[in-house]
Amino acid sequence: MTEQPVLLYDGDCGFCATSVRFAERRIGLRARPVPWQFADLEALGTTRERADHEVLWIERGRVHGGAQAVAKLLIAAGAPWSLAGFPLRVPPLRWVAHWVYRLVAANRHRLPGGTPTCSLPADRR
After folding, report:
1. Is position 28 within any domain?
2. What is the tally of structural domains in the chain?
């Protein structure tokens, strides 16, 4: 039996928590969602800085961040979601996905479920 992937997200961010709940209800999240604030980051092979910077998909010792974590989430969910996930792994869509992810991450406090706390760095929350 293989270990279930882990989806690390910012538990202090309303937009992030809302997005994870959406993935659980609508997409069929096939990973264990864990707020990074309650995770053993070292055991998962990542750092606080990286976890605070982007959502992380951790599977079999490999860490995928940002848009690539979202792509892995979609691929793991199977059809029809995987049809959106696979193209996100290949240039030039991979580059566009990275840009869109950074844009969303920078403005998550303005999006549905977001709060002013979403825009603060971890050490100021």
Report:
1. yes
2. 1
Is 93 among the domain residues? yes
pTM of the model: 0.90
Report how far residue 53's alpha carbon sits from residue 66's, in angstroms, rounded to the nearest whole number.
8
Nearest to 60 by CA among 42, 80, 82, 45: 45
* Beta strands at 32-35 and 6-9: parallel, antiparallel or unpaired: parallel
- CA–CA dist 11, 48 (Å, integer): 13
pLDDT tens readout for residues 97-112: 999 999 999 998 888 7
Distance CA 107, CA 9 (A): 16
Distance from the Cα of residue 30 to its chain's centroid = 13
